[in-house]
Amino acid sequence: MKNKVCLVTGATAGIGEVTAFKLAQMGATVVGVGRNPAKCAATESRIRAETENPNVEFLVADLSSQAQIRALDASFRQKYHRLDVLVNNAGAFNFAREVSVDGIEMTFALNHLGYFLLTHLLLDVLKASAPARIVSVSSSAHYNGKLDLDDLEMQKNFQGWPAYANSKLANVLFTYELARRLEGTGVTATVLHPGWVATEFAYNNLRGWLGLFRPFYRLFQKMTAITPEQGADTIVYLATSPEVEGVTGKFFVERQEKRSLAVSYDEGVAKKLWEISERMVR
Ligand SMILES: NC(=O)c1ccc[n+]([C@@H]2O[C@H](COP(=O)([O-])OP(=O)(O)OC[C@H]3O[C@@H](n4cnc5c(N)ncnc54)[C@H](OP(=O)(O)O)[C@@H]3O)[C@@H](O)[C@H]2O)c1
């Protein structure tokens, strides 16, 4: 991976952090993205020191904010002139309905529009660096998705889990449509489920009286989930392996191609989601 530039979002914790670490270990130039400046600085120092790779840098951006995604794109371009791998990973589960600074339901804003807008902004750099790869982290939760294209922000009846499942279905639809639109460019787009992984995922929702469940959540994770290293494996595989050179528009679990939810193959739905997303990010 020497001389390759990789950008990984959500690289201050969980599987994104491990992905950034592994790519740095392979010799790539790694640009990590996080929303917390102190965590970004600490993770950058740790990865640099432990991998002995000086070409690791973290940029700060809250990816639920469209202005911050645009600022991230500008900062990246100031320093880097190529991008070989984009890993869209930053995502969250929100128990209660919140809205982003752009007034968009938070789960959709971060988990789907964050991937959609950042990818769009970086597309010309990726094309100019071809062969290049876009790897997006979805979830097996997408199998429970029921996207209502007339109410993507779930204004009528918001529930945390269905909103999360819908956003992860949007990741799959987005990737398949992106792959179709990128045909012939040398840029591939793949999407994956990392497994049920013991990370910080969903933990922050355990606030107030729900905080009582924190020790049980950790215990449950310990007993049932895989490690972040195991969870990052398919991401790193799709980002780097020669075995998947040229493979595009596919969903993966444990390094294997797998069929995603039937509706994710509906090109009409994907096109409509794409057009609505374009309008939402202006
Ligand atoms: N864990 C699982 O079992 C599981 C299963 C299936 C899919 N996934 C998917 O895997 C991806 C990574 O999740 P994880 O398990 O590694 O979770 P995690 O430990 O909570 O890490 C999430 C990362 O995203 C960052 N992030 C969250 N909100 C952000 C925002 N608004 N702007 C910028 N960065 C933000 C976090 O930053 P901070 O460090 O500041 O919090 C952190 O670096 C997500 O897309 C998730 O949907 C996870």
Question: What would the keywords be for this entry?
Answer:
single chain; 282 residues; alpha/beta; Rossmann fold; 44% helix; 14% strand; globular; binds NADP nicotinamide-adenine-dinucleotide phosphate
Percent helix: 40-55%
Low-pLDDT residue intervals, each spanning 5 or more residues: none
Annotated CATH homologous superfamily: NAD(P)-binding Rossmann-like Domain
Identify the overall geometry.
Answer: globular
Cofactors, ions and other ligands in the entry: NADP nicotinamide-adenine-dinucleotide phosphate
**Class from secondary-structure proportions:** alpha/beta
Structural commentary:
With 282 residues, the chain is α/β, with parallel strands linked by helices. Helix content is 44%, strand content 14%. The chain has a single domain (5-198, 228-280), classed as NAD(P)-binding Rossmann-like Domain (Rossmann fold, 3-Layer(aba) Sandwich), CATH 3.40.50. The chain contains 8 helices and 8 strands, in the order E-H-E-H-E-H-E-H-E-H-E-H-H-E-E-H. Strands 3-2-1-4-5-6-7-8 form an 8-stranded mixed β-sheet, with helices on both faces. The chain starts with a strand and ends with a helix. The model has no long low-confidence stretch (mean pLDDT 97). NADP nicotinamide-adenine-dinucleotide phosphate is lined by residues 10-16, 34-36, 39, 62-64, 89-92, 110, 137, 139, 193-194, 196-197, 199-201.
